[in-house]
Amino acid sequence: MAGPYKRILLKLSGEVLAGDARFGIDPDRIKAMAEEIAEVARQGVQLGLVIGGGNFFRGVAAAARQMDRVQADNMGMLATVINCLAMQDALEKQGIPTRVMTAIQMNAVAEPYIRRRAIRHLEKGRIVLFGGGTSNPYFSTDSAGALRALEIDAQILAKATGVDGVYDRDPRKFPGAVRYQQVSYDEVLARNLAVMDASAVAMCRDNSLPIIVFNLTARGNIMRVSMGESVGTRIG
Length: 236
What we know:
Blueprint: E1 7-12, H1 15-18, H2 27-42, E2 46-51, H3 69-92, E3 98-102, E4 111-112, H4 115-123, E5 127-131, H5 141-151, E6 156-161, E7 166-167, E8 179-180, E9 182-183, H6 185-190, H7 198-206, E10 211-215, H8 221-226, E11 233-235
Parallel strand pairs: 1-2, 1-6, 2-5, 3-4, 3-5, 6-10, 9-11
Antiparallel strand pairs: 7-8, 10-11
């Protein structure tokens, strides 16, 4: 065991909030996720969250094919803010104090992202939800997650996915795919394992930030990751 960790950046895909509908926000799914995240926060773990926007809009999706890429990415960044506000509501219904901070200023609904203020919120026991990506087009929410994890001095970047780790091939297409318990940053990049954007993996490698890739759909996994148990795949 490596934990329990004091501070974690949890990266969630927007698609997981949609549940079986694959679009929008499923109330039962977000409630269940908020319950798990709240349990971890009650253990004294400081949590930052980055949530993708794919349940509403992705700049590289088919719906954006005819669009200017910068415009499409801007729409995707706004979608992440919607998800942050929804998760904020769900977490506060669990009695957990939160703050939404956005890289794109929208003061009527969220605080602007300021690193020192974010760290202060974490130290006070608030979950901080980072919306708006990096505010720059051509960067994914994986890159935003890696950037925020480094800025807030998180001990790990925990990426929650629909599979239970990193495989040598896509396990949904190849039944014989082999899961790694641990794999190096360089092997992830060299073999194009596609678990995260290459820029995010390289950023973590260059700053020695471990990445844990785990299955979000297995209840209790967020707690197990936060306690340092061997869950999913460790990249580092």
